[in-house]
């Protein structure tokens, strides 16, 4: 394996200075010694300062919104963050001025956690994009503004390694990681946070002192709970993340290529449509039952199918077809047989023949050439799937999303509800779908309390979503998706109650309706749906690291009382 040395700085030395060698200024800002003073010839990235963008700046209208155009804000300013020191100063200034902040990396937040009328300052980390290797920590570092595809490119081209993250290329690492992170490699390798070794966080205490800490997963680390909270506890809760480090649990030696998982060199990929015109209600029911039954049977941590992941888009009838994309590690023995067996099980007894994709479908672009499974390098497949559908990544769309983890197959009622809503005569939006993601495998080899991500025995994950262009249609589409969700989970009080057939919701698919009694009438608190039994521990950590609840939003962790 090839090795690559760290060229930009000694991160371990800097971390020690931040955690233990900082000095307090009278204003309450605590910063590390200036590393440029010790090495004046080095680039001064430590002190890099981003722009402050106010309403008079031509960039302001763009940056006051994220990707989802439903959510607007009129902040006093947007502060572009370029370094940890910059984040420290920005946090100090906002706190001293009494301004409420929100935190952004890739602008893909599904809800109003970043852009909302109460926010006075948006702290934007999209310019912190470095990816590299820290030889002293034996871990790879990723800054929060790095986009997922850039992370995959840098890690794989530089060292032949990766993290098992999501498929959407433009999602920012900052929020994706904090919420747990998963993708097509997760059944084989677990969640992204199962490989998280350390995190650098700018915090503010009850006296308004700004401090930066590096917290690791090491049992002896006194700040380990801060690491745990960022391993699935969600973004915008405890401080400003300026860096993540990754090292896999089975890492060994000192070579960079041995510290993190390697993706398969080649994968076998398949994509096909199942036309609505070929499906009766009975056939639709059998198809959904087949999907659920296969995942119930084949999602154990040691399943031979853990190297196979599928993304099944149950599109609205207005789209014209349902679509399925599947990827399997082509380097394992019998890869083609595993793929064929899965696709055969999916359509068994349905009486429908898969066809080449007729157009884009949800997160899957137009892939007609993959009707016949095709082998290609892993990174090429990652680029192909993650970059070629403008619907999902469009910066002009309005959208609504809801989630659910499933531990067991669908009920007849759930399939009936889905069929009725997807075939409603007055519903004509083709950009609407229930996305079913393969889950389980090595994700389920980890204990529910080992990280903040508590869902560790589900077999597939769901995302209900719809996209539309005009604000005048907001009420129609919001009513539609809310009614579908309530009906789908009617047998569990309108939400995916943990511990039964379902297992709660995914915090990275944030849905503020769950915290609103107008829409969540189940009596199950939103935090139980997202964090289950891990929420009290998150509250204790919040009390320690953000006792004044400075970092808050509609789904933020509340500090423990007392």
From TrEMBL:
Residues 1-24 form the signal peptide. InterPro entries: BBE, FAD-bd_PCMH, FAD-bd_PCMH-like_sf, FAD-bd_PCMH_sub2, FAD-linked_Oxidoreductase, Oxid_FAD_bind_N, TAT_signal. Pfam families: BBE, FAD_binding_4. Residues 71-251 form the FAD-binding PCMH-type domain. Its cofactor is FAD. SUPFAM superfamilies: FAD-binding/transporter-associated domain-like (SSF56176). The keyword Signal applies. GO terms for molecular function: FAD binding; oxidoreductase activity. It comes from the Bacteria. PROSITE patterns: FAD_PCMH, TAT. Residues 37-59 are annotated as: Disordered. The keyword Coiled coil does not apply. Keywords: FAD, Flavoprotein, Oxidoreductase, Signal. Belongs to the oxygen-dependent FAD-linked oxidoreductase family. This is FAD-binding oxidoreductase. It comes from Actinomadura rubrisoli.
